[in-house]
Specification:
single chain, two-stranded parallel ribbon, 12 helices, about 290 residues
Amino acid sequence: LSFYWIEFSLLKEIHSDHFIVLNDENPAKKYEFLFKARNKATTSNIVVINHLLLMKDSTAKIPLFWKIKKLIIDESHNLEDTVTEWLKEKTDSEEIKNTLEKLQKTSNIYNYKLENFENLYQNITNNVSLIFDLLSFYWASKNQWQNPNYETLIENDFFEKNEWIWKVLNLVENSLIEILDFFWAAWEKLFLLIKNDLAIIENALHIFQTVLNKEKTDVIKVFTYNSKYSNELYYTVLNVWKFSEKTFWTKADSVILTSATLDLWDDFKYIKESLWIDENFSFLKLKTDFDYAN
């Protein structure tokens, strides 16, 4: 086959995300690159992976590296940013709209129809648009439209200006829950086709419930305005140390953190507090011939 001029369009189709890849029903399972790579990793004495894969495995229901004897994390000054980025949950109005449309189209093929779907769809899209419009005005009040791509923290003043936002949230919440309840009960063949769509919708609902809850103060809430693409709403962890304590520091028999920039102003206070490094860690600062200034 010739892939001239179409190779890049095919790239998005080449992935290992589909549930069938590691499923025993896959006749080519033993030939799958992911299957072979995972098997090789579990039998290796030394495994080199990046920060992101370490995050992914640490939060997996069935982790690949369920027992690590020695964990060495290089460039560990970036660990806080990596954890924050990995634990970010985000959604946007276009994703919700497109996912609902795809869900309806797929279910209609199998004649599994929710009678009032159109009304629920209109209710969701209209109120989600209202939420994003309110957030756009909030963004504008903070940034005066100076930057076409900018993130704004959602703080208490947003809720003070929009005290009735919970009513809009309730409308979205009730409609999404009705759709989810109906389609989670779909028969197996259809469910396997739509389960990823349901997960996207469920995740969007969870994000709205978290970000638009004034009492939820243990996360960072952010709205991203983008003049060219869809605006985004997301939240992530506020205290990275809680995640570090429950995963890395208790998962391995020993942990070594290395970096050229672990100490700020000649002490390790910041890294200790941000990653919850306690008295079980010892610290060693070594001189280097590298001339950073020049």
